[in-house]
């Protein structure tokens, strides 16, 4: 039986990041993966979805041409087969980039088989077994298909299969308005597909602030119908798929895009049989080192359910890879959390959410700004949105933010960086803001928060010569 210093199960973002760290210290490792290579993000997630969204927004833009003095917009049309071909062309390019990064080691280090634990340090690959001192588990996740809906699988398109559609359906129900459901649902609508959406709540793209949830619901339901009721029954009538909702509403479509979440790929790994304690269906592990309790295993990426985002999976893989080749585990501080939904307007969060702050009993003030009437948003034809920043009422420290706003992907980065740097509201206000830009809206929200702080404000937003520089505590 071959024995390795480190075995990595899974060649997605987390597994590949772990491999890079391991390879810095040793050549005595192996990667085991029996699936389609190329990572979830490049193949079926972040990247192909953004291609479709770009096409949809480009086509949607034609609606403002006449007002801007540009004629002929009504003559534009969508060839959905050509659209999907374009999406797959760029998708394949992104996948080739991932595969290209594997060329130097793939032939010698990758085993295209499924792994299962046969012992704490033994992996069963079906026709052989291998040993490993340390194991990194990075098996990812898969779309959820509710059991009662299995007979209608041919009518349901999950996010793994969506980008293989030869052309877009005429009528589609989008079940679930999390990140991917909202992104694809809005894109399909803007490409001329008859879309109806179904969600159990108003937590669009992960929003938790009640005011933002209500604003988002009004905004998106103005574009396409949104039903806040679960699906109680599916059945077919000829060529139609009929959905009956819990409130009695019936919807008739051609297909349904299923976006009700993803399930960690832990089944079949055999961890339960080796005495690993489980909570909520997952092995118990240390969230700062990612070591599974009482084992020489590390549990990272989408499979652990902590932060199922590419940049987070990459960080977790690096941490696990580093710890797997060092004698003592190191605790690493996580980066400030940030998420973005590429809807229009963008939805984004940075730092602690409204829900987290309330649940933790943290005192905070909310600085708010509306992007209705905001100068740069008007010019861009993207007027509308709401941004909330949360700050400590005594110190002014920025704690978090939630937003639905044009350019939200960029605003979220500014906010996440400010929170990570420990900036207070007034320190952030001392930084430069150009005119006219979308960031001026952020300044308005910061001013609103500053006016609610308990201590006296400085005479001006700009720093005095005697004040410490931004980021330096007085």
**SS elements, strand count:** 24
Mean pLDDT reading: 96
Strand-residue fraction? 15-25%
Number of domains: 3
Instruction: Give the count of helical stretches.
Output: 13
Description:
This protein is 29% helix and 23% strand. The chain is of the alpha/beta class and 474 residues long. It has three domains: 2-143 and 263-324, FAD/NAD(P)-binding domain; 147-260, FAD/NAD(P)-binding domain, CATH 3.50.50.60; 338-450, 2-Layer Sandwich (Enolase-like, domain 1). The strands form six sheets. Strands 1, 2, 3, 4, 5, 6 and 19 form a seven-stranded mixed beta sheet that branches. It has a five-stranded parallel beta sheet with strand order 8-15-9-10-11. The protein has a five-stranded antiparallel beta sheet with strand order 20-21-24-23-22, with helices on both faces. A hairpin with a 4-residue loop joins strand 13 (240-245) and strand 14. It is globular, with a radius of gyration of 25 Å. It starts with a strand and ends in a 24-residue tail after the last helix. The model has no long low-confidence stretch (mean pLDDT 96).
Please name the defining characteristics of this protein.
FAD/NAD(P)-binding domain; single chain; 24 strands; 474 residues; 3 domains; seven-stranded mixed β-sheet; Enolase-like, domain 1; 13 helices; alpha/beta
Quick recap of the structure?
The chain is α/β, with parallel strands linked by helices and 474 residues long. It has helices at 13-25, 40-44, 46-60, 80-100, 106-109, 179-190, 210-221, 310-324, 354-359, 375-380, 408-420, 425-429, 439-450, and strands at 2-9, 29-32, 110-111, 116-119, 122-124, 129-137, 141-143, 156-158, 171-175, 194-198, 226-227, 231-237, 240-245, 250-253, 255-258, 262-264, 278-279, 282-283, 297-299, 338-341, 346-351, 365-370, 386-391, 398-405.
